[in-house]
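Posting for a labmate who doesn't have an account.
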Amino acid sequence: MMPAHSALGADRVVHFACAGCYVAPMRGSRFRIACLGAGFVAVAALTAGAATANETAATPRVVFVLQRGGGCPARGTLELCEGIREAMRLTGVTGRIVAPTFRESNAEFLGLLARQRPELVVTFGQYFERAFSRVVAHHPAVPFALMDASRTVLKRPPRNVQGIVFRTSEAAYLAGWLAGKLERRRPGGDVVGVVGGMKVPPVRDFVVGFAAGARRAAPGIEVLVDYSDDFLDRSKCSALARRQIARGAGTVFNVAGECGLGTLAAAASAGIWGVGVDSDQSFLGPHILTSVLKRFDAGFLELLRQVKAGRVVTGRDTILGMRDGAVGLAEISKKVPRSLVQQVDELRRKIVAGIVVVPSVPARNTG
């Protein structure tokens, strides 16, 4: 991978974006982007001309601070930067996409940005840095947004912080319900499996929704859940999925990024269904039942609409779900009976209307 270049004073901005991802904590104050979709691609974000145009554009101004060394799923999903650009196009709000170099500390980088007084700073995972809260609190007039995280991940969240939380459990519930209904049509006991990467809220929310949907469709179904503690090693997820399949699972759900491709490969080898995550993973083969989607572009659009209206929300979380177009299902396999597809759509409408309430995981990581 090439190093990212800072957008501050550089004549070209290059960074690695992540679409279909969340930020996974590592030891100490380190963190990394964990992509739940398939594959990685480096993205050249802004040319010199684009950077100059954004920097000199009239307010409101938004700065999107990406991580060094992230990645994008190469197929079937909207790239992170394209989602940002589309939100800017739809709202007319201008902004810059920036990333610190490997030589810069996130705290210093964010402090420099805050001193420029943008109307909003959107961050991706920088909140795992111990100095993040201190930097944010030092600039109370500058609103900050945490993408794909609750503000409660901070021990003492400053009042100028907003969290953007995706209610992925709603879409996972639909996938689980469909998997449960298909299990009822198979001989033997009803069993489905989930292979997660790490036991953190963004992953657990998928798991809880999927399990609840499966149990609604097939009361008494056994939902097997294992965590690989890894988002990259496919062999770990493959081994867990094979163990679940040996115990009778007729569907396995990938919630473990690159590692989870091993889960879906195991499903293909066993001739059972696999459920993709975050991006549409149907390109992997006809064994893909559907995929649970998370749309970061909906989060960008919500934030830029707040900026345009002059009412940036801070001091609380903004929760985005199916009603907001932020989560949903990819196309369901054409092998599934049309009657079941229609029932999934009816269930989706009930969730959006609030008739069916889907359980979710608290946004804060409580272990």
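Reply:
Got it, the structure tokens are right above this. Residues 37 and 320 are 20 Å apart (CA to CA).
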